[in-house]
Amino acid sequence: MRRKSWKPLVQLVLHMSDQAPSVAKASKAALVAVAELLKWKELKELAQKEQLWKMGECLLAKESSRAEQFVQDSQRYLLSPQAPLREAALRFYGLAARHLTERNKETMAAVLSKLGRMEAQDEDPSIRALAAQTSLILRALSDQQESTLRRLCCWCH
Q1: Which of 76, 79, 73 minimizes the C-alpha distance to 59?
Q2: Each residue of 106-144: pLDDT tens digit?
């Protein structure tokens, strides 16, 4: 049961930004219940305080190995007609993508491509700007990882 409880966490976190107050409230209540089931005090407290950004960090700190799944789980929300939901998804999407490792090159390329489309096409200027900022951060982190790997390889030879 606990393993399956992980599946809806991203959806619940993102739906706390839903424009419909009843959906946001139900998502918060469900997230608190799942956190209780998982005996995860920090997540429960963050959900009660509605600290969405910190909840994303909390999920990834606990299970960074699920980063690729979290990227996929948040991706469909990037197309939401609701700007607040798209923004929350974009923030979580970028946060999860930062935890991708060298072996996730294809996923990172897809993430950067999706961010490029959002930067060029989203109707909301603040979301376009956030997509551009997220893309820059991810590219810088990727370049930094490659540089570190090159130095390690050169040092070994």
Answers
A1: 73
A2: 899 999 999 999 999 999 999 999 999 999 999 998 776
The CA-atom distances, in angstroms, between 54 and each of 51, 112, 120, 142 are 6, 23, 28, 23
Burial grade of 73 (CB within 10 A; 0-12, 13-18, 19 or more): buried
Is residue 49's pLDDT more than 70?
A: yes
Q: Where are the alpha helices (DSSP H) in 38-104?
A: 41-48, 52-62, 67-75, 83-97
User: Which stretches does DSSP call E strand in the chain?
Assistant: none
Worst-scoring range by mean pLDDT, 52-61, 82-91, 99-108? 99-108
